[in-house]
Specification:
The complex is a heterodimer of chains A (340) and B (327).
Chain A (H helix, E strand, L loop, with lengths): L1 E5 L9 E7 L6 E2 L4 E6 L4 E5 L4 E4 L7 E4 L3 E6 L14 H10 L1 H15 L2 E3 L18 H9 L5 H5 L11 H8 L8 E8 L1 H13 L6 H13 L9 E6 L4 E6 L20 E5 L16 E8 L2 E8 L6 H16 L2 H4 L1
Parallel strand pairs in A: 11-13, 13-14
Antiparallel strand pairs in A: 1-8, 2-4, 2-7, 3-6, 4-5, 6-8, 9-10, 10-15, 11-12, 14-15
Chain B lengths: L2 E3 H15 L3 E5 L15 H5 L4 E3 L4 H13 L3 E5 L10 H8 L2 H4 L9 E6 L14 H5 L5 E3 L4 H13 L4 E6 L6 E3 L13 E4 L4 E5 L2 H15 L4 E5 L2 E3 L3 H11 L2 E8 L4 H12 L9 E5 L8 H7 L3 H12 L4
Parallel strand pairs in B: 2-3, 2-4, 4-5, 5-7, 6-7, 10-11, 10-13, 13-14
Antiparallel strand pairs in B: 1-8, 6-12, 9-11
Helix pairs in contact in B: 1-7, 3-4, 8-12, 9-10
The chains are: A alpha+beta (340), B alpha/beta (327).
């Protein structure tokens, strides 16, 4: 089954979108959520993400061209053989050149994220194919299908200086080079956030209202609001572990309620993220046995909160994760924003 | 099992069929008393007489046209074209008439005709008597093309061709007439469109036709000494072509060389290589290689002529290059 990639409408009364660059090449493996192309309107530039896992095929629109909104510009297929008949509008060479020029803005975006929120990013040594991987490899069709079937990235062979063209016999080397180190397959990023404003905010709320609002309720509300940056889901459930025993409490859409009214969820809900609040303990880091896609660990670090975001790269792209972390940090640094 | 020559196998096939069906006649130049320049038909005129083994004047278009007409009206002629190079003389009779009559007559007329002719260089016969022109014929819808690579195939394919109700062209390599092979005394037929795997292997597929089958088999044996396992496939008929056997083999080996004695440009090797690329692309680990005869008129000089035709040694070298990724 081929899934159509269309030029999205980013603004009202918008008739065309400018395809700035392809971030993936024809035939590349793509994962759900990975950026496929950069699109620009008169107001904004955004990345269009892959709606599902598969292979990007049948690219029919050239980079740096205006494309009518709603027009199909590529397909995603589960198997390369399923590629629909191609209506070629661009030569592969032109697409390749466009892809190369597309690399730079990508880097700038992540540098900016680093600067904004003091974020250090640690990734597993071997990454799944990412948007940064624009290279054309000389490889036999057989090696390509074998590598794709095992979800292995040919960049690994090139990085190792393996001579091209890669052939089926190189699968052994590719597999060896691709063995992931015995550490978490997850990515994580840590940010240090000043908590002065947060503490002032909390004490003012508590002196103004009759009820006691715990830092837990405020943080739960903040993270819930931040999660909306990365999801279109209307309802957000979170699992919040806190206290010396790390007792788990479920909250349902806490950001949609008055702080004083936030109460634990009455029914079991599906948690989108897990919050591990270590602020009432001496620990600053905890590796759990959870399999939640998104885990936010909050601990005390001198006069700051240390916020660690741990995510499954299959569920969240790095850019989304950094945005989530940045948004959450901003809310802690200036809590009044939450009220606006 | 008894061994007989390629020429004797052809002779036996024709004689057996002529005994079974008196509508079968043979016509061509020097087919009766002379038994053809290669003595393939010797003895037939003694058994069947000059009414059925007919020596014609030197006029290829004439006797081929007669045969096409005879076939339409009830006989089952076997046309003997002394050299494959003379195909150019009978293109209209063969390609416009024989190939299309069944279609043009709305199925009312059949042309149950066999054209047996030859191919192959390195006989020092120069450019006008050394060509391998089977690709010209295989290009035409309505013509079947058989290319026996041994005495066994020569007999089985000839008998199938004679019994076919449509025109069949059989190309025999003129250097193979004296090659012996085991041929059963009991009757057998070889179906068209069924390739034979002569040598099973797992590393590389060598698709070879006619005399090139022998060269491919020698190359496969040399490769085996280097622990390289080559699969040799003889399509036996190039039209119809047993694509399935070839594609399945390439899916297994991921490497392929197609070897044929016709010129490489626009030839059989290109056709088969293209089908492999179309249908086994994702299994390929190296580009499919065409290996045909050099694209030059066949030289008269023996030293030069030998350079124009693929040899076992060259096939072996080419296979190594393909497997080592040097191509």
């Amino acid at each position: 089954m081929a899934h159509e990639i269309i030029m999205p409408a980013l603004g009202m009364a918008q008739e065309t979108g400018r395809l700035v660059a392809w971030l993936k090449n024809e035939g590349d493996t793509v994962r759900k959520g990975e950026p496929l192309m950069e699109v620009e309107t008169d107001k904004s530039t955004m990345e269009v993400e892959a709606p599902k896992d598969g292979f990007l095929v049948n690219i029919t629109a050239l980079a740096n061209t205006d494309v009518p909104v709603g027009e199909v510009v590529a397909h995603i297929v589960e198997h390369l053989e399923d590629a629909p008949a191609k209506l070629v509008k661009a030569s592969p060479l032109a697409l390749e050149q466009e892809a190369i020029t597309a690399q730079e803005p990508q880097h700038q975006a992540s540098n900016q994220a680093d600067a904004d929120t003091n974020v250090r990013v640690a990734e597993p040594a071997i990454n799944p194919p990412t948007a940064h991987n624009k290279a054309k490899f000389l490889a036999s069709p057989k090696l390509r299908s074998l590598a794709a079937s095992e979800n292995l990235d040919l960049q690994v062979l090139r990085n190792a200086g393996h001579p091209e063209p890669f052939k089926a016999a190189d699968m052994t080397t590719l597999r060896q080079l691709s063995i992931r180190p015995n550490i978490s397959l997850r990515n994580n990023a840590t940010s240090l956030v000043d908590k002065t404003s947060f503490n002032i905010f909390l004490s003012e709320i508590n002196s103004a209202s009759q009820m006691t609002v715990s830092s837990e309720l405020v943080l739960a509300s903040f993270i819930s609001a931040s999660l909306r940056v990365t999801t279109n889901a209307d309802n957000i459930g979170i699992s919040y572990k806190s206290g010396p025993e790390l007792q788990s409490t479920m909250y349902y859409n806490p950001d949609k309620q008055q702080l004083a009214d936030i109460a634990p969820a009455e029914h079991d809900i599906l948690a989108m993220a897990e919050i591990c609040d270590l602020t009432s303990t001496d620990f600053i880091q905890l590796s759990g046995d959870t399999n939640s896609n998104i885990i936010v660990t909050i601990s005390n670090f001198t006069e700051q909160f240390m916020v660690t975001l741990d995510w499954d790269p299959n569920a969240l792209s790095q850019i989304e994760a950094l945005e989530l972390l940045r948004d959450f940090s901003t809310r802690i640094k200036s809590p009044l924003k939450q009220l606006l | 099992m008894r061994e007989i020559t390629f020429g004797a196998a052809v002779n036996e096939a024709i004689a057996e069929e002529m005994r079974l069906d008196e509508r079968i006649i043979v016509l061509g130049e020097d087919v009766a008393e002379a038994g053809t320049p290669f003595k393939v038909l010797s003895g037939l005129v003694e058994e069947f007489g000059t009414q059925r083994i007919i020596d014609t004047p030197i006029s290829e278009p004439g006797f081929t046209g007669i045969a096409v007409g005879a076939a339409m009206t009830g006989l089952r002629p076997i046309v003997d074209l002394m050299f494959g190079d003379f195909l150019f003389l009978i293109m209209d009779q063969l390609c416009n008439q024989a190939a299309k009559t069944h279609y043009m007559s709305g199925g009312k007329l059949n042309v149950p005709m066999v054209l047996r002719t030859n191919m192959g260089a390195t006989r020092r016969s120069a450019a006008q008597h050394s060509q391998s022109l089977h690709a010209l014929v295989a290009h035409i819808p309505g013509l079947k093309v058989a290319m026996p690579s041994s005495a066994y195939e020569a007999k089985g394919l000839m008998k199938t061709a004679i019994r076919d109700n449509n025109p069949v062209v059989i190309f025999e390599d003129k250097l193979m007439y004296n090659d012996k092979a085991e041929v059963p005394e009991e009757e057998y037929l070889i179906n068209f469109g069924e390739a034979e795997i002569l040598h099973t292997g797992s590393d590389i597929t060598l698709v070879a036709t006619s005399s090139m089958v022998q060269q491919a088999e020698i190359a496969a044996k040399t490769l085996a000494k280097q622990n390289i396992s080559a699969e040799v496939i003889d399509p036996r008929t190039i039209s119809p072509l047993d694509e399935t056997t070839i594609i399945n083999s390439v899916k297994k080996t991921s490497h392929a060389i197609v070897i044929d004695e016709g010129h490489q440009n626009y030839g059989i090797t290109a056709e088969i290589a293209a089908r492999i690329s179309e249908k086994a692309f994702y299994y390929l680990d190296a580009p499919v290689q065409r290996f045909g005869a050099m694209d030059v008129p066949v030289p008269f000089s023996p030293a030069l002529e030998d350079l124009t035709v693929p040899t076992a040694q060259q096939i072996h070298e080419r296979a190594i290059s393909v497997l080592e990724g040097k191509i």
